[in-house]
Specification:
The protein is mainly alpha-helical. Helix content is 72%, strand content 4%. The protein starts with 5 loop residues before the first helix and ends with a helix.
Length: 260
């Protein structure tokens, strides 16, 4: 495997970024045209909350305790920027398969031929986990968070939420959960590259739990422990999934090493 000069790597990186950027801009134009509809969907956690029950239906959406909350904008350009922000994040989510594909094309030259066969599984898995993370946040985390934050000791308070603050709150949560759900892929990649081992990951599980809560405290847009726990618990679960997936891949790898 020939080593390419640094300038060639930088040129390759520039091309990958340029292709991804063009795709995001095209998707942005389409999403901006439908930003009003996307916004109406994004406000559903504000009006509905998720209810868990031991009876059928076990999971259902019920009206929140504050159904009359209306979002307001406090600056002339705030509504416009809100629509642009929604369109941009939606474009990132839509083009995520292409972005992951370009990431793979950038790192593929440094891999062995037998490792390049994982291109399609890599793209499918990373896209699936990102979308599952975003969906998990939107369906489960955001309704719980909104219901908790808007009803915690607010009997004598009237909520008046800026549309920019609300959209920013939701999008940060959604993108953070989408990124966090990539943890199993990252752990598998690190173990395949020999940077860490399964034994190391399992042995340092307690530190992973601590780091999970630290990461949740940094990524969540609010300082309360409730929302931090909503993010930290999935991180810990995903860490365990990553260890389990790494063991499976390493088992497949051992026979090849034994033949040598």
């Amino acid at each position: 495997m020939d080593k390419a000069p640094l300038t060639e790597h930088l040129g390759e990186l520039r091309n990958r970024i340029l292709i991804s950027l063009i795709a995001v801009l095209i998707a942005f134009g389409v999403c901006f045209n439908y930003s009003e509809y996307i916004f109406s969907v994004l406000t559903s956690p504000l009006h509905y909350t998720l209810e868990l029950s031991f009876d059928n239906p076990y999971i259902s959406f019920i009206p929140s305790k504050n159904p009359g909350i209306n979002l307001v904008f406090l600056a002339p350009a705030e509504a416009l920027w809100m629509h642009m922000k929604i369109a941009f994040i939606s474009a990132l989510i839509i083009t995520s398969p292409l972005i992951f594909f370009e990431i793979w094309r950038f790192i593929a030259p440094g891999l062995m031929d037998k490792e390049k066969k994982y291109a399609i599984p890599f793209i499918i898995t990373t896209t699936f986990l990102f979308l599952i993370g975003a969906l998990f946040c939107f369906i489960i985390v955001l309704p719980f968070a909104m219901n908790f934050l808007l009803n915690y000791k607010t009997e004598n308070l009237q909520p008046m939420i800026s549309v920019d603050k609300y959209v920013d709150f939701c999008l940060k949560f959604i993108m953070a959960f989408g990124a966090i759900f990539e943890l199993p892929v990252i752990l598998v990649f690190l173990t395949r590259m020999g940077i860490v081992t399964n034994e190391f990951l399992a042995k340092n599980r307690k530190y992973a739990v601590l780091i999970a809560f630290i990461v949740a405290a940094v990524l969540t847009p609010t300082p309360d422990a409730f929302n931090q726990t909503l993010m930290a618990v999935p991180i810990v679960i995903l860490y365990e999934v990553g260890i389990w997936a790494s063991r499976i891949f390493n088992k497949k790898k051992k026979p090849e090493g034994e033949k040598k």
